[in-house]
Design goal:
The chain is built from 2 helices and 20 strands. By secondary structure, the chain is mainly beta. The strands form 4 sheets. Strands 12, 13, 16, 17, 18, 19 and 20 form a 7-stranded mixed beta sheet that branches. Strand 12 (162-168) and strand 13 form a beta hairpin. The N and C termini lie far apart (83 Å).
Length: 274
């Protein structure tokens, strides 16, 4: 009984320890460590090992070397594998709903029944990579040197902190904020986000616009390909001949869009071709 009391006391001490932090990506494999040192070289035939989630649902059970799938909750059936070398449970096809706290328990099967000898908690967070932000023009013709566009990014988690535009000229960079619209899929819980902005085009000859998505919790920034804007100054006669012509430029590997602003040399009236 003395040894049993010592072991129980050790478990109580461990249960108050801080949880390990673990991270997994959506639809990939996460790891739930147990960190059992097994200093007495106990065989699996002497142990009962299992993992539970924060709702006390069983993910996996190994009873004296034999898996017990009938004790596993249906949501985890066929989604786990036990790495005996590292005492780690791998959770496959991780979903957003899998985020939360987990505990592993190890008991020794001795002559007096099951004796708890190890317990460890871990907190699993789940991430999904947002797509590269994509800029789209709302119209193929605009006047007064104002361009209207949207930016969107899809299938990510958790909800990002911010989305905005950067307008870059040779001498300056200007941020343009907008209300970020978001929607969340009811099944996958992944987010789609977008913004819509109207930007004044500076008088500089070459300008580029980049969309930026600021992620949580890492504060990582995702950048779109640039939308390049070139101001072409023309005489009035040439401008009259071309102002009604809209020219569509195919997207290249290094640019989201190309916009030509045709401006007369004698006044500020201009047209924009894409």
């Amino acid at each position: 009984m003395g040894l049993r009391n010592i072991l129980v006391g050790m478990v109580l001490l461990l249960s108050g320890a801080a949880s390990l932090k673990s991270q997994a990506y959506f639809n990939e494999t996460g790891e739930l460590p147990c960190h059992f040192t097994n200093s007495q070289n106990l065989s699996l035939d002497e142990l009962v090992i299992f993992w539970q989630d924060q709702d006390n649902l069983v993910l996996y059970e190994l009873y004296r070397g034999q898996e017990k799938p009938h004790n596993v909750n249906s949501k985890y059936m066929g989604r786990t594998s036990f790495d005996q070398a590292t005492w780690t449970l791998r959770l496959h096809n991780v979903q957003i709903k899998d985020k939360g706290s987990y505990q592993c328990f190890i008991h020794h099967k001795g002559p007096h029944g099951l004796v708890p000898i190890h317990q460890m908690s871990s907190d699993l967070s789940v991430l999904a990579n947002f797509s590269q932000p994509e800029i789209n023009l709302l119209t193929n013709h605009t006047e007064n040197s104002v361009i209207n566009l949207t930016c969107s990014s899809t299938q990510g988690y958790p909800e990002p902190q911010r989305m905005y535009m950067l307008l870059n000229t040779k001498n300056s960079t200007t941020e343009h904020d907008a209300d970020m619209k978001k929607s969340q899929n009811n099944i996958t819980e992944l987010y789609n986000v977008s913004i819509r902005v109207s930007l004044p085009i500076p008088p500089e000859t070459n300008v580029s616009i980049v969309c930026v998505l600021q992620l949580e919790p890492s504060k990582t920034l995702l950048f779109s390909l640039p939308c390049n804007i070139e101001t072409i100054k023309m005489n009035r006669k040439a401008s009259e001949q071309t102002k009604n012509r809209a020219e569509v430029h195919e997207r290249s590997d290094d640019a989201q869009c190309d916009v030509n602003i045709l401006k007369t040399a004698s006044d500020d009236n201009s047209t924009t071709d894409f």
